[in-house]
Specification:
Strand 3 (about 220) and strand 4 (about 230-235) form a beta hairpin. Helix 5 crosses helix 9 (about 260-285), helix 8 crosses helix 12 (about 345-355) and helix 12 packs antiparallel against helix 14. This protein has 14 helices and 4 strands. The protein is mainly α. The longest helix has about 40 residues, at about 305-340. The two termini are about 35 Å apart.
Length: about 400
């Protein structure tokens, strides 16, 4: 068992001298301004899914969409899936725009509204490119076996999740950012040397043109096996000290070293299979089918019901996923400290990330438990100091 580097989960770190009252207030103000938009978007999306899935409204939408393309079963499946995706995106659009406006007021947005709209369309196109084949395959299985369709579908969902994890850096990331190899020099050599010292093989060091959209700082290690590469935001490279960049990358290498991406992919695949199995149970329950206006799982009008159940499962599992993520991030922080042995620069890096990203460095505990995927900045800094204290020799007592 490894030691935890974070304070006891129930504890609340005392205010530290690392952030001034003004800096704390700024991060708190951004969080308070964004929260209504973030919560509103989540609740609206969930409410829409439940209304469409648990009432005949969703069945009517699928029938109407399919009727515009001939009314065949295939038309209902594909047009119905597209209609559900489009309606969901439209419902989320005002909340996304509101959150963007808030972030722009705090200086975190460099992209204009036109660029934001183009990104939204790109995201929609990617979602449709995935959702339509999935819906077609799913209802091909339900047509063959309305009662046991979920057995092969669960296996297919697990395989698809694993495939997407591998293909994401190759097919999806380039849609939203341009990546260029980092120029040869001390910074590139230091990052490759860090990976080599850590025993992590990386293919290249790339620079993402994040400054086209944001002033936020970030870096990550992307891909599996032969596709693995270190990616640094150009904003990080132009703002942070070289040693701070190394600390960020050391944290990301910790995810690779502990196989977090692989473990996450496996857990995601298992989770996808479990969700499909639960959907199979829901689609066989007559009261739910009746409420949704569908006859059985093979009826394309059951699609909104399946989407509603999936949305509800996702909402209920969110806090658990966040808790697991915070533990994983804590372990990656410890790895960065052990790899670099540089507590001072680690703390400097955490301060820079928090201040540049206008983070709430000490959010309310309930929000952290429900929504935070990373420990707060004050917790991470306190954990780093605790790690350092455990490794510092005790002072000799002279008698």
């Amino acid at each position: 068992m490894t030691d935890s580097v974070s304070p006891t989960p129930g504890d609340h770190p005392a205010p530290s001298p690392d952030f001034t009252p003004a800096q704390r207030a700024r991060g708190r103000a951004l969080r308070r301004a964004q929260l209504p938009w973030a919560l509103g978007g989540r609740l609206t999306g969930l409410a829409l899914a439940l209304v469409l899935g648990l009432t005949p409204a969703g069945a009517g939408l699928v029938s109407a969409a399919g009727g515009r393309f001939g009314g065949s079963r295939t038309a209902e499946v594909l047009a119905g899936a597209a209609a559900l995706v489009l309606l969901g995106r439209l419902a989320q659009l005002p909340f996304g725009a509101g959150a963007r406006s808030v972030r722009a007021r705090f200086g975190l947005v460099t992209q204009g509204w036109a660029g934001w709209a183009v990104d939204a369309l790109r995201g929609l196109a990617l979602t449709l490119a995935l959702a339509l084949p999935v819906a077609f395959g799913l209802y091909a299985l339900t047509d063959r076996s309305p009662e046991h369709w979920w057995l092969p579908a669960a296996g297919a969902a697990a395989l698809l999740t694993a495939a997407l994890s591998f293909l994401y850096p190759l097919l999806v990331e380039p849609v939203f950012n341009r990546f260029t190899p980092m120029e040869p020099g001390p910074q590139r050599a230091a990052l490759l040397g860090l990976a080599e010292r850590d025993g992590v093989r990386v293919r290249d060091v790339l620079v993402a043109d994040a400054s086209r959209r944001t002033t936020a700082l970030n870096a990550y290690v992307s891909g599996l096996g032969a596709t693995r590469r270190i990616v640094a935001y150009d904003t990080l490279l132009s703002t942070a000290d070289p040693r701070e960049v190394e600390l960020v990358v050391a944290h990301e290498l910790g995810h690779v070293k502990h196989r977090d991406v692989l473990t996450g992919t496996v857990l995601g695949a298992v989770g996808a299979a479990v969700v499909v199995a639960l959907l199979g149970l829901a689609s066989g329950w007559d009261p739910l089918l009746s409420a949704a206006g569908a006859t059985d799982a093979a009826d394309p009008r059951s699609m909104p019901l399946l989407a509603a159940c999936a949305a509800l499962l996702g909402a209920l599992s969110g806090p658990v996923q966040c808790a697991v993520s915070r533990r994983v991030e804590t372990r990656a922080d410890r790895h960065a400290l052990e790899l670099t042995q540089d507590t001072e620069q680690f703390i400097a890096m955490q301060r820079r990330l928090a201040l540049t990203n206008v983070s709430d460095v000490d959010p309310p505990r309930v929000l952290e438990l429900l929504f935070a995927t990373h420990p707060s900045a004050t917790r991470r800094i306190a954990a780093a100091r605790a790690w350092q204290a455990r490794r510092s020799p005790a002072p000799e007592v002279v008698v």
